[in-house]
Amino acid sequence: MKKRLYQSMIELGNGKTSSAALKRFAQSAISRKAIPGFINAYKIELGDIERPSGQYTSLHDFFTRSLKADARPVADAELVSPVDGRLEIHGAIQRDSQFMVKGIDYSLTELLGSGQMAKRYANGQYAILYLSPADYHRIHSPIDGEVVKQYMLGERSYPVNRLGLTYGKSPISGNRRLITELDTPHGRVLVVKVGAMYVNSIELTEFGNEWQKGQEVAYFSFGSTVALFFEGGHLQFDSKIHDGDRVKVGEPLAYMV
Description:
The chain is α+β, with helices and mostly antiparallel strands. The chain folds into two domains: 2-63, no CATH class; 79-256, no CATH class. The protein contains eight helices and 16 strands. A hairpin with a 2-residue loop joins strand 3 (98-101) and strand 4 (104-107). The chain is globular and about 50 Å long. The termini are far apart. Mean pLDDT is 83; it is low at 1-15 and 159-168. Pathway: Phospholipid metabolism; phosphatidylethanolamine biosynthesis; Lipid metabolism. It holds the Pfam family PS_Dcarbxylase. Keywords: Decarboxylase, Lipid biosynthesis, Lipid metabolism, Lyase, Phospholipid biosynthesis, Phospholipid metabolism, Pyruvate, Zymogen. InterPro entries: PS_Dcarbxylase, PSD-B.
């Protein structure tokens, strides 16, 4: 009952008109007045941002803010966090290419739109990282690698917060998403950027074929999620991080076994 009610309420407000209106407002000069309230509401730390808060021209400009060059040092680990956010869950992918988030089974085949690609990651591992509206929203490469495939799937997006993951319509595999497959010295890695409700936008900033660990590659225009999938059992997650922990760009996620 809760799930049906939640989905019905989201559908009522998740139309093209409302999404477009919010996007226009966030990118308008008048939205600049909302920045101080946004900072206070989400208790955003300003010490790391590239520009003083008064220099941003719109709410969108502030939301997609860059950080100072030395704000996120990159750890000496084979795999680091690509974003500032919360590690929702990490673990092993099931043999049938299924993975679980908030008690819901997801199909890697559905997420990727390809059963052949999904088979490659059977017996691999995954990690789901959620970005709240307060977080730094630029995405960095989690590992050194070569881009072998990159494509977009999905049209609409639903909330990817805890309520959305619990009661939504499979938001991770159903939302608009930009999928990048990397060939790395430790096997193939998938970096899946998942859009969020309303401002359903994922923008690339790196168009080359070589990604370097810690390098900025894209940004979100609203709170969202990054899902990582690793081929085989070559990587072992850092024992110091647990589901629910906060992580920052460049902090260690996994090491080579």
